[in-house]
Design a protein that fits this description.
mainly alpha; two-stranded antiparallel ribbon; about 65% helix; about 0% strand
């Protein structure tokens, strides 16, 4: 179904307003409370669900199911990304009052990157049907990587490629700033007439580099559910917008979702197989079955429910330490020097520590 240009414009305008509200809310450094995180998480989930109801009503049940399926997949992958964000915030000792600012920049960057990937992906799919097989095989490989890396120690993000590229090009001012300082929370500073960036800027750069890697899995996954660019974009955008608040809501539960990687791996395998079957059904033989969208939604919901329950049951009475929680950083700490010379890690992100 072709979406009119004015609907695209109105949707992008609405998303821009939501981003502006997020930026306005995070304008002053402060530690996000559980109550605040819960309120904004609920608001964004309600917005996504209401938007889906509008898609169902105006574009039909098939489009509605595709949107909800895509939103659920992107939301689950986003939750898994939070493990890596926790590692980054902890390893760079980002003060609690600045964590939402770093995450907000990450969300905005992820929106821009995914919009670009969606445009490119849609163009490639329309030109080359065989790309479905490529996407499918890539998702199978991603699922294998999820299972293989499960339970591994988080890699050192202080030697991330973004750090190695940034430090030789710009000056990094390591000076601490206290809460209430007019320079507190700035990404760039001028000290002694010398312009440079702060450690907070380095943390944002690492988050953005990780977002780029995550987008490479997320976009093929949602194209496996729907090839409608409008649904792909809106499902991605509305899944990402609540990510900042969701982080602070779930930060205490992240290390209890021990089976989430297995659930996501199964979902990615399912979608990968669906993509390959779709190509074979449309371009090889109509006798080869294609997986219907309603079955995709059912598999996604059931899988997420099962792994959530089994994770919480298996960790009942104790926690498994899979990630370095950012709460370990003191409130007034500033990010330490990020020179890669002190570290041996590669800095390459894994989907789940």
């Amino acid at each position: 179904m072709t979406v009119p240009l004015w609907v695209w414009a109105a949707t992008i305008g609405g998303i821009a307003v939501l981003v502006a509200v997020d930026v306005w809310h995070a304008r002053s450094p402060h530690e996000v409370s559980f109550r605040e995180a819960t309120l904004w998480s609920v608001i964004y989930v309600v917005v996504a669900l209401v938007f889906g109801a509008g898609v169902w009503f105006f574009m039909g049940p098939q489009s509605g199911i595709e949107y909800y399926s895509g939103w659920l997949v992107e939301k689950s992958l986003s939750v898994d990304n939070l493990f890596i964000f926790a590692v980054i915030l902890g390893q760079f000792a980002v003060p609690k009052r600045h964590q939402q600012k770093v995450l907000l920049w990450g969300v905005v960057g992820a929106l821009v990157m995914r919009a670009v990937f969606i445009v490119v992906g849609a163009a490639v799919i329309s030109a080359f049907a065989f790309v479905f097989v490529v996407f499918g095989l890539f998702l199978l490989y991603t699922a294998y990587g999820l299972v293989r890396s499960h339970g591994q120690e988080p890699k050192d993000m202080s030697d991330n490629v973004a750090v190695r590229l940034t430090r030789p090009l710009v000056t990094v001012h390591e000076e601490d700033t206290a809460e209430g300082d007019p320079h507190d929370g700035q990404l760039t500073r001028r000290i002694g007439g010398r312009f440079g960036v702060t450690p907070l800027f380095i943390a944002v750069a690492v988050i953005l580099s990780v977002d780029l890697v995550f987008a490479l899995d997320s976009i093929p996954a949602i194209f496996g559910i729907t090839q409608n660019s409008y649904l792909v974009f809106t499902a991605n955008a509305l899944a990402l917008l609540g990510l900042r608040a969701l982080y602070f809501l779930l930060v205490g539960l992240l290390d209890r979702l021990v089976h989430l990687s297995y659930g996501l791996a199964f979902i990615l395998v399912f979608i990968g197989v669906k993509l390959i079957l779709l190509y074979l059904h449309e371009d090889v033989s109509a006798a080869i079955p294609a997986i219907p969208t309603w079955l995709s939604l059912t598999v996604i919901v059931v899988t997420l429910a099962v792994v959530t329950v089994t994770s919480l049951v298996s960790t009942r009475g104790g926690k498994n330490s899979h990630a370095t929680a950012p709460d370990s950083a003191p409130d007034d700490s500033a990010a330490p020097p990020v020179s890669g010379s002190e570290h041996d890690g590669t800095g390459s992100p894994t989907r789940r520590p």
